[in-house]
């Protein structure tokens, strides 16, 4: 595959040697031949090496995968992996024949894995140690994150790798969707469970009214649940997740004449569970049917 | 490539597999391979093109799929049919599948690289780790403790 790049340098060498005296030209041609065969040999060797590397790699770095935790509880997983490298290595040595998946060269594996969704990648990573290494590849998970969630955050470097970040983001996005289910179901009980019981939580409804503190916030939702039912469509949902804080921005379209809205929701992680601590909704200035006032006022 | 039939399609390219078998392939089919395209641009179009990394049975498969892929361009039924063949091949003969994948990668045929990768994705979808191991002959080298821990760490993906 690399072959086409070879003739170019050779050609320039030839023209150079033609310009030189006949005796030195001969000398150059000799050198050129040497360069050419040497380069060819090197490519062949590097190909072999690559293949071999693919195999060694699966043996030597059994640990070091970025394993997520459900609720974005990052930080605890990392160190636990390191001592396992030796164990994984020994385990692979015990193996006799490698499967077809393990014999593929890394480029092919990378290409093939880029077609998998998150659950297939996870299942594959659970089959054995070399598949685990391949399917936990940070680049693969970063690409999947951008495909499934957001093209933003390209320069972000998640503390425990992209698989972990993917899992944490998924958890937060799910929680955020649950918020709109609760509004749809008008379940005040669920809304009580959803917010953090703290005096600093705040809620700004689309009317512009601000409520501060758990009781005032829940009271405002109790009032809004008396209004006509609404269904929602969330678009451009973007979540940013840090160790125990996450915020989600989105556009919310509703089936009534008001809206659409720009919304920001902020969550905090407490005892492995995400709680809402802030909700801010405002009507888009020039959005679709923006003539009427919203329902949450 | 299907549309080039009027002028150039009659040209035949001769290729030789690693085990010495000679194939005569229409230029339009052969040019699906970027490797062959580059070789022809370089010089060796008039001679037999050697393919030292591809055996005859695999090369036969490659050509078949190149042709099918060309046919399916405007045919949704064919597209479906071709996509569903992967499951069969991966189940019955994973080694031929991996050889095909390697050959396609070596020959640098973009459309088939995508197709074979899609096959794997379709094949893996919804299958348990245990079933994947069994079908693809992947040896489980985890201890029961490791396995339990790994399951715990990946549980988020199955809720």
From TrEMBL, chain A:
Keyword Membrane appears in the UniProt entry: yes
Gene3D superfamilies (UniProt xref): 1.20.1280.50, 3.10.450.50
Record field: transmembrane: 12-35
Domain F-box, first and last residues per copy: 106-146
Top-level lineage group: Eukaryota
Domain SnoaL-like: 172-285
Record flagged with keyword Transcription regulation: no
A Pfam short name: F-box-like
Keywords: Membrane, Transmembrane, Transmembrane helix
PANTHER family: F-BOX PROTEIN SKIP8 (PTHR47124:SF1)
Name of the protein in its database record: F-box protein SKIP8
TrEMBL record, chain B:
Record-linked Pfam families: Skp1, Skp1_POZ
Pathway in which this enzyme or protein is active: Protein modification; protein ubiquitination
Single GO biological process annotation from the record: protein ubiquitination
SUPFAM superfamilies, sorted: POZ domain, Skp1 dimerisation domain-like
Gene3D superfamilies from the UniProt entry: Potassium Channel Kv1.1, Chain A (3.30.710.10)
InterPro entries recorded: SKP1, SKP1-like, SKP1-like_dim_sf, SKP1/BTB/POZ_sf, Skp1_comp_dimer, Skp1_comp_POZ
Keywords: Ubl conjugation pathway
Domain SKP1 component dimerisation: residue ranges: 110-157
Domain spans labelled SKP1 component POZ: 11-70
Purpose: Involved in ubiquitination and subsequent proteasomal degradation of target proteins. Together with CUL1, RBX1 and a F-box protein, it forms a SCF E3 ubiquitin ligase complex. The functional specificity of this complex depends on the type of F-box protein. In the SCF complex, it serves as an adapter that links the F-box protein to CUL1.
Database matches in PANTHER family: SKP1 (PTHR11165)
Family of this protein: Belongs to the SKP1 family.
Subunit (UniProt): Part of a SCF (SKP1-cullin-F-box) protein ligase complex.
The protein's name: SKP1-like protein
Organism listed in the record: Cinnamomum micranthum f. kanehirae
């Amino acid at each position: 595959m690399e072959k086409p790049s070879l003739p170019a340098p050779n050609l320039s060498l030839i023209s150079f040697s033609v310009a030189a005296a006949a005796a030195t030209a001969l000398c150059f041609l000799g050198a050129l031949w040497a360069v050419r065969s040497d380069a060819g040999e090197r490519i062949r060797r590097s190909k072999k090496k690559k293949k071999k590397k693919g195999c060694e790699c699966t043996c030597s770095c059994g640990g070091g995968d970025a394993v997520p935790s459900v609720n974005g509880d990052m930080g605890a997983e990392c160190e636990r992996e390191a001592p396992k490298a030796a164990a994984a290595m020994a385990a692979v040595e015990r193996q006799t024949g490698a499967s077809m998946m393990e014999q593929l060269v890394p480029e092919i594996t990378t290409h093939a894995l880029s077609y998998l969704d998150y659950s297939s990648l996870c299942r594959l990573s659970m089959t054995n140690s070399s598949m685990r290494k391949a399917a936990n590849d940070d680049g693969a998970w970063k690409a999947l994150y951008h495909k499934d969630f957001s093209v933003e955050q390209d320069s972000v470097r998640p503390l425990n790798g992209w698989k972990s970040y993917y899992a944490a983001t998924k958890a937060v996005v799910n929680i955020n969707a649950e918020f709109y289910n609760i509004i749809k179901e008008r379940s005040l009980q669920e809304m009580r469970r959803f917010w953090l019981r703290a005096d600093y939580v705040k809620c700004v409804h689309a009317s512009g009214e601000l409520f501060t503190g758990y009781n005032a916030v829940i009271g405002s939702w109790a009032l809004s649940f008396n209004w006509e039912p609404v269904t929602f469509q969330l678009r451009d949902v973007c979540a940013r997740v840090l160790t125990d804080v996450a915020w989600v921005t989105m556009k919310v379209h509703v089936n009534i004449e008001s809206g659409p809205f720009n919304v920001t929701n902020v969550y905090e992680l407490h005892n492995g569970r995400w709680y809402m601590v802030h909700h801010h909704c405002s009507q888009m200035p020039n959005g679709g049917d923006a003539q009427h006032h919203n329902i949450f006022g | 490539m299907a549309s080039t039939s009027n002028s150039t399609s009659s040209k035949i390219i001769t290729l030789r597999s690693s085990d010495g078998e000679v194939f005569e392939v229409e230029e339009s089919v052969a040019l699906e391979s970027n490797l062959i395209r580059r070789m022809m641009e370089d010089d060796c179009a008039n001679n037999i093109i050697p393919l030292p990394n591809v055996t005859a049975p695999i090369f036969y498969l490659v050509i078949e799929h190149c042709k099918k892929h060309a046919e399916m361009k405007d045919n949704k039924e064919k597209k479906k049919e071709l996509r569903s063949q992967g499951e069969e091949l991966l189940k019955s003969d994973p080694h031929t599948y991996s050889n095909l994948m390697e050959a396609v990668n070596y020959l640098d045929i973009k459309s088939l690289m995508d197709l074979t990768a899609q096959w794997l994705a379709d094949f893996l979808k919804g299958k348990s780790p245990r079933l994947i191991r069994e079908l693809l002959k992947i040896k489980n080298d985890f201890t029961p403790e490791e396995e339990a821990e790994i399951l715990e760490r990946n549980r988020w993906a199955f809720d």
